[in-house]
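Researcher: Let's do a round of design. I'm pasting the structure tokens now; please hold your answer until I've finished.
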């Protein structure tokens, strides 16, 4: 059981976390891992938290990731990284899109978006890999490619060959968006 790895994908509804989990799952399956995925949607259509659990290894019995178990957290938004930080295991990493998406309490003025979230996470000794994935996605050709930029960043942190990831992107995204997504993946991988 010690060879089982856990990845928590967190974001806000509409950011493409489900495609990201499909890309990750497909890449892992192509390397013959036993993969379990569980998606928790929350209030995804209202900009609420969306969480996907991905576990893989020789034999995985459940996709659920408990607090302190995640080897890696892939966060589509900085506040979501802070919200799910308790799930990260000691020595784990967080990959974060620095884009700020205001939750409803901030939008309505009843709360303020916290200052320097990533700085505070780093002060706790957590390894943080961050980039403005929105700007990179726009450079690739579409703001909707944030998820694939982040998958490029994640891919670089795995021991799965880059070509396997590129093949997975080709097999998973619609052909008319392939060039855009390959470019987005490459921009993320370069971070």
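Researcher: That's everything. Go ahead.
Model: Designed sequence:
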């Amino acid at each position: 059981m010690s060879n089982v790895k856990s990845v928590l994908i967190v974001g806000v509804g509409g950011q493409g976390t489900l495609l990201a989990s499909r890309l990750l799952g497909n890449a892992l399956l192509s390397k013959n891992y036993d993969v379990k995925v569980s998606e928790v949607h929350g209030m995804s259509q209202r900009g609420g938290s969306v969480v996907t659990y991905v576990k893989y290894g020789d034999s995985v019995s459940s996709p659920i990731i408990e607090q302190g178990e995640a080897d890696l957290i892939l966060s589509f938004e900085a506040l979501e990284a802070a919200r799910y930080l308790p799930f990260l295991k000691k020595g784990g990493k967080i990959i974060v899109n620095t884009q700020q998406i205001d939750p409803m309490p901030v939008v309505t003025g009843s709360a303020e978006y916290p200052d320097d979230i990533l700085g505070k996470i780093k002060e706790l000794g957590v390894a943080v890999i961050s980039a403005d994935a929105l700007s990179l996605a726009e450079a690739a050709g579409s703001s909707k490619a944030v998820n694939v930029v982040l998958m490029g960043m994640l891919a670089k942190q795995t021991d799965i060959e880059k070509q396997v990831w590129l093949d997975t992107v080709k097999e998973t995204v619609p052909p008319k968006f392939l060039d855009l997504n390959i470019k987005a993946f490459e921009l993320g991988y370069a971070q």
